[in-house]
Amino acid sequence: MTESTPPPRRPLATFLRASSASPSDDATVPPTDVDGTTADKERDMEVDSASDNTSSESDREDIAAPDAAIEPEVAEPVSVDSAHDPAGDEAFRRLAEQPEAEAAPAAPSFMRAPEAPLPTPRWQWGLVAGLVVVLALQIAVADRARLAADAGSRPWIAGLCSVLRCSLPAWQEPTAFSMIGRDVRPVPGQPGALQVQASFRNDARWAQGWPSLRLSLSDADGRVIGTRVFAPHDYLDPAADAASVLEPGQSAQIAFRVREPAASTVAFTFEFL
């Protein structure tokens, strides 16, 4: 900003000359005495008053002149370089075109609200349930022998195999066989040979295979002098099927021969295995 310089002051004599040269129209010339004393005094007073007036006016002009000469401050305009950067203009244009949501910076992941998970479609739950059922059926069929040997799980595994047409092993419960009749006699004409006959019944809830039979011979003192276990193929007729089963409540009769271990045999016992 440029500083303004006040105009130069005019000398006091100039104002005095101007005042004396152009007196006011309303001023009246005082009467003059003969000797001119009064006129001189009045003229001196007029000159003094004029000088006082001119000095006060000059002082006022001196005080007012700098204020009138001071110009108001004007802010210098910022010069803008006409050579601008096109890349910067393009960046500003793109920023202005961006939506408000895109222009705002993304919040950190730990400050974001957790998104609500989408509901799982029902058909997926149905598919999972179907796969679970199929897997359970496969496990049950693969382990059906062990499950069929348990009285608690055999009913439903038997029903499942009846639908899937799978085979189950026969129920095994030796204590469920009941001995109906038994007889051991020597074979006529064959010394030391014994004819064994027995009849038993399956009292179990399910069909059972032919049981193994243990025969024990004792003497008169109760001592066991001989024992042997007979498998189904040992006591059944060769034409009979040893893999067949006895249905619940079904009875069977068997007969076979054994050699007497000693002539003192007087007692015998049967045991189902």
UniProtKB/TrEMBL annotation:
Feature: compositional bias, Pro residues = 1-10
Top-level taxon of the source organism = Bacteria
Matching entries from Pfam families are given as: DUF3426
Q: According to the UniProt record, where is the region Disordered? A: 1-86
The UniProt entry, under InterPro entries, shows: DUF3426
| Name of this protein | DUF3426 domain-containing protein
Query: Which species does the entry assign this protein to?
Result: Stenotrophomonas aracearum
